[in-house]
Automatic annotation (TrEMBL):
This is Thiamine triphosphatase. It holds the Pfam family CYTH. GO terms for biological process: thiamine diphosphate metabolic process. It comes from Lepisosteus oculatus (Spotted gar). Residues 8-208 form the CYTH domain. One of its GO terms (molecular function) is magnesium ion binding. InterPro entries: CYTH-like_dom_sf, CYTH_domain, THTPA. It comes from the Eukaryota.
């Protein structure tokens, strides 16, 4: 039987953390702490910011490459749909695909920069791309910082339909330059799960105050 791979979409909502946010989470008896970690991020772009201006984020985290980009459905939203969503809580949420396979990262970056050619794309698929691809695409690190992250899972109250994986993830990040930000995240596997994910994020935000 042919197996079709599905790529998860991260539906997330960021918020600025107050000094008491961890206390609030710890006061929620159902919150499960997944632990804390520290990692170094480097973000890359072209000198004229061609990736970030398209809301595409290329980073190297602890030596591993990752690419975050908007899912196709979000990019195709009409202006009318955007205005309608801005009247609700959906405007506070973003949807990103996270790509971690190096060959796919390189291929997608080339696509975004519109510099790909068939011969080089074939080498990428075959895993023969030179380690110098960053230099070849004129990419450079424009930001580097260390982050301390504490992660939690919050099960939902009641019997609301769950998206795959169950619960809502909350990450609390503190950077080495003093910025604190939180993120409420739900992973979805199909467009049909999007509304449920948005409801879960909104309810979690209300519980966190």
């Amino acid at each position: 039987r042919e197996r079709t791979e599905r790529m998860s979409v991260e539906v997330e909502r960021k918020f600025v953390c107050g000094p008491d946010i961890q206390t609030r989470l710890n006061d929620l008896a159902v919150a499960v702490c997944l632990g804390c970690a520290q990692f170094l991020d480097q973000y890359f772009d072209t000198p004229d910011c061609r990736l970030t201006l398209r809301d595409v984020w290329l980073r190297r985290r602890q030596g591993s490459w990752e690419l975050k980009c908007r899912d196709g459905a979000t990019r195709r939203r009409s202006a009318a749909e955007s205005r309608q969503q801005e009247r609700g809580g959906d405007a506070l949420c973003t949807r990103y695909r996270e790509i971690t396979e190096l060959a796919e990262v390189i291929a997608r970056v080339r696509e975004e920069l519109r510099e790909g050619d068939h011969e080089q794309a074939a080498r990428v698929r075959d895993g023969q791309m030179s380690p110098s691809w960053v230099r070849e695409l004129c990419l450079f690190p424009f930001a580097q910082f260390t982050t301390e992250r504490c992660s939690y899972i919050l099960p939902m109250e009641g019997e609301e339909e769950e998206v795959e994986g169950g619960g809502t993830r909350v990450d609390l990040d503190r950077t080495d330059f003093g910025f604190c930000v939180g993120e409420i995240e739900v992973l979805v596997q199909s467009p049909e799960e999007m509304d449920s994910a948005l409801r879960k994020i909104e309810r979690t935000a209300q519980r966190l105050g």
